[in-house]
Design goal:
- The protein is mostly helical.
- It has one domain (31-429): MFS general substrate transporter like domains (Growth Hormone, Chain: A, Up-down Bundle), CATH 1.20.1250.20.
- The protein is built from 18 helices and no strands.
- It has helices at residues 2-8, 13-16, 23-26, 43-62, 68-75, 79-91, 96-106, 108-128, 132-160, 163-195, 199-218, 232-241, 243-274, 278-306, 308-325, 333-359, 366-418, 426-429.
- α15 (308-325) packs across α17.
- The chain is globular and about 50 Å long.
């Protein structure tokens, strides 16, 4: 719906009610800047293609969380072994710093297609030889694909869409995150139930190959984008130069760490607290996906109207409070699901609403900034994945909620104090490290 609304160039909730079916009719109203006159799909269609590619990547990334106990049973290993592999996967986020020079050298389209092919290879390894080590290889390759795909995609949209409309455009691609739970989690649950723990990898490999073909057909070849960060050395110099990039790094890392500390153990908490089956756990995950898609829709509607910073500051504070409240809902599955819905909705608004802000911190170094943002996401999730089980074991879910609340509160403080768009905070964005 947001793709159609974006292509209309604005509109209100009245526009949303007309639905996704109108996207095709409205697609002709938007063209991508700086593209040759050769026939190229309209930008609304390109957003749909990008979202589909992200959907399959995110499905592979997110399936571990609700089904960690089932994967551990299938692999015949302790649950902590799966958590350790998730943490190892997240360490691969440092590779996002390399994706910036790759995107500059080979073009954003080539990097996105290559990322999907890399993901397909990782999944195929598990299909051919299902074991603990091939599962670990697949998780690492998935992380490498993710941290290469996302910065290139976000920079691609940032180059094409004016800042005033960028919130709507990026919110379309963020639907892939929530749909990975709404559509992906139930499918993964049924596949594991019917064919075993490795079955989802076959379908993910096939779908990621089809997504790569779709991007090849749908996206124009824009050529390379020569920026100051063409080489890794130049990328690191840019990161050292702009202090606001470091503020953004720590802000994003803390936001992700707060969420991961709870999310890494929520499947175990739900299973033990309420005795959920695989199918029911997949349904519960789909409810969380529904909350995220609501958050993405709200972010797309609100941040361009009321301002990126005011919206995400407000939802960040509410999200911090919900981390504290969630552990006290263990007495009722309905109450727990409502709390999870609210928690993940506000979290998603905070993250999705913040992406347009990140793309405008240092506009001339957009890919570098988004690569650092992706590195921060994976760094935060790595620490959270390692700390989450430990905190849960030592203090229980209540302490996990308190730790997450403190981290989210610190992140909001960093946002308020140091992070602003370049055009309203040039003094900060362009100050150099002495």
């Amino acid at each position: 719906m947001w793709a159609w609304w974006f292509m209309r160039g604005g509109g209100g909730f009245k526009s949303l009610s007309r639905g996704m079916g109108r996207l095709v009719c409205a697609a002709n109203s938007v063209t991508l800047p700086s593209v040759s006159e050769k026939k190229v799909p309209r930008f609304g269609w390109q957003l749909v293609a990008l979202t589909i590619g992200r959907l399959f990547l995110n499905s592979g990334l997110r399936m571990v969380y609700p089904f960690a106990p089932a994967l551990a049973r299938g692999l015949g290993v302790p649950l902590t072994a799966v958590y350790q592999i998730v943490a190892m996967r997240n360490v691969a986020g440092i590779f996002s710093l390399v994706s910036s020079p790759l995107s500059a050298r080979f073009g954003r389209k080539a990097v996105m297609m290559g990322s999907l092919l890399l993901f397909a290879v990782g999944c195929a390894v598990v299909v051919v030889y299902p074991s603990l080590w091939t599962f670990a290889v697949a998780m690492v390759l998935l992380a490498l694909a993710k941290v290469s795909f996302d910065p290139s995609m976000q920079a691609y949209v940032g180059d094409a869409v004016p800042y005033a409309q960028r919130g709507k455009a990026l919110s379309v691609t963020e639907f892939a995150w929530s749909l990975a739970l709404i559509m992906g989690a139930p499918g993964v649950g049924f596949a594991i139930h019917l064919w075993g723990w490795s079955a989802p990898f076959f379908w993910l490999a096939l779908l990621s190959l089809l997504a790569a073909v779709l991007l090849w057909r749908m996206l124009p070849r824009l050529g390379t984008v020569q920026t100051q960060g063409v080489r890794l050395h130049d990328t690191l110099r840019v990161v050292r130069t702009y202090r606001v990039i470091w503020a953004a790094f720590f802000y994003i890392a803390l936001v992700m760490m707060a969420n991961e500390i709870l999310f890494i153990v929520y499947g175990d908490w739900m299973e033990t607290s309420f005795g959920l089956t695989l199918a029911t756990l997949g349904f519960a995950s789909a409810i969380i996906g529904g909350s995220e898609i609501a958050g993405e829709a709200f972010a797309g509607w609100s941040v361009d109207r009321f301002g990126k910073r005011p919206v995400i500051i407000t939802t960040g504070v509410v999200n911090a409070l919900l981390y504290f409240i969630l552990p006290f809902t263990h007495g009722s599955l309905t109450t727990a699901l409502i709390a999870l819905f609210a928690l993940f909705m506000t979290f998603e608004i905070t993250v999705v609403g913040g992406m347009p802000l990140m793309t405008e911190l240092v506009p001339e170094q957009r890919t570098v900034v988004m690569s650092m943002v992706m590195a921060a996401m994976l760094a935060g999730r790595t620490v959270g994945a390692l700390a989450g089980p430990v905190v849960m074991e030592l203090g229980g879910f209540v302490v996990s909620g308190m730790v997450s609340m403190l981290m989210m509160g610190t992140a909001v403080f960093i946002l308020v104090r140091w992070i602003r768009e370049a055009r309203t905070g040039d003094a900060l964005a362009h100050s150099t490290a002495q």
